[in-house]
Design goal:
Helices cover about 55% and strands about 10% of the residues. The chain is rod-shaped, with a radius of gyration of 33 Å. It has helices at about 40-45, 50-60, 65-70, 90-100, 105-150, 160-175, 180, 200-215, 230-240, 255-265, 275-290, 305-315, 320-334; strands at about 15-20, 25-30, 35, 70-75, 85-90, 245, 245-250. The strands form two sheets. Strands 1-2-3-5-4 form a five-stranded antiparallel sheet. The protein folds into two domains: about 5-125; about 185-334, Up-down Bundle (Four Helix Bundle (Hemerythrin (Met), subunit A)), CATH 1.20.120.
């Protein structure tokens, strides 16, 4: 007997079976089972086709097997090279016939076929086990983010933001629902959106100028609002747009927006107004890339939630950057 790449068999593939003293037969693997025509079964066991037909009729008549569960019309390439729809019988029917034929060849095939299906079952279990482990990792990731938000909500600067923290928890939980993510790769960072609008230095300072004018008129800001420390803001924009080996380090809208919000709040490039400028540029950038709203026209991150996020970033340690960025990107992808 010989078998070819049993552990790599895929749906619809043909497996070659050859007994030590017998014919070489192309065995069809479909619907997680092995299939043969009546003629192939006859060749397999060294009998004539009428004998196979007789055994199959008796097997079905006696109720040992049900025809719908053991036979199927599949595509078959004939000796003339043309493809025809032909009736095939699965492993249950083949083995049942094999027991009735009761020959050396039948015994050899039963041993081979059982081993083949066993390999597939083991391989299938391994795949499912991997998916279960991935689901567990996603659950741990969700737990970690929830604990992080709960811990930060105790900070004095976040007093009065408890409801928004709860809303963030709920929204973030939705983005990592295990049922939604079960067949996807482990969620570390959302990188779905590809934006055409680029926030360069000239545009950014025009926007900041407009914000300052409006706030000063309302008496909510002073002249030092938006004044840059040396070239710190310019460096942030360069960081967000940086490339390595001609590839952007932050290629998606989610990544650029999240890092823009984080770096402005955390690096304090302006004398005054860092959180307000960061929040406004964050919204402005998303809006320009048509990525600010959900399909139902609600903001992906509403104003109150954005305030809570800004405060979370402000009170966080720098070692927690990746966790915060991941939270923001997942909220934006929702």
């Amino acid at each position: 007997m010989k078998k070819e790449n049993i552990n790599e068999i895929k749906k619809g593939e043909i497996i070659i079976y050859k007994a030590s003293k017998g014919p070489e037969i192309e065995v069809k693997f479909e619907q997680e089972n092995i299939w043969l025509t009546q003629l192939q079964i006859a060749l397999l066991f060294g009998v004539n086709r009428p004998a196979v037909t007789k055994h199959l009729n008796n097997i079905l008549k006696e109720g040992e097997l049900k025809e719908k569960s053991v036979s199927s019309i599949l595509e078959h390439t004939a000796s003339d090279g043309k493809k025809y729809k032909t009736q095939f019988y699965n492993l249950d029917a083949i083995i049942s016939v094999g027991y009735r034929v009761n020959s050396v060849r039948a015994t050899q095939f039963r041993i081979w076929a059982t081993k083949t299906l066993k390999d597939h079952l083991v391989q299938g279990f391994t795949i499912n086990e991997k998916r279960i482990l991935e689901a567990k990792e996603k659950f741990k990731e969700l737990q970690s983010s929830i604990l992080f938000l709960q811990e930060k909500s105790k900070n004095q600067l976040l007093a009065g933001q408890e409801q928004e923290i709860l809303s963030l928890l709920a929204d973030y939980s939705k983005t990592l629902t295990l049922l939604e993510q079960y067949d996807k790769e482990k969620v570390l960072l959302q990188k779905n959106g590809k934006g055409k609008f680029v926030l360069n230095e000239k545009i950014a300072f025009e926007v900041i100028k407009g914000i300052k004018k409006d706030l000063v008129e309302k008496g909510e800001a002073k002249e030092i609002f938006g004044q840059e420390y040396e070239d710190k803001f310019k460096a942030i924009l360069g960081n967000i747009l940086q490339t390595f080996d001609k590839k952007e380090l932050y290629p998606s809208i989610e990544e650029k927006a999240s890092h823009l919000l984080y770096f402005i709040i955390k690096d304090h490039p302006f004398v005054d107004g860092n959180k307000r400028i960061a929040s406004f540029l964050f919204v402005y950038y998303l809006d320009k890339n048509n990525y600010l709203y959900k399909d139902n026209n609600e903001k992906k991150i509403n104003d109150n939630a954005l305030t809570a996020l800004s405060l979370l970033i402000a009170v966080s340690d720098r070692s927690e950057k990746d966790k915060l960025v991941k939270i923001v990107t997942n909220l934006l992808s929702n």
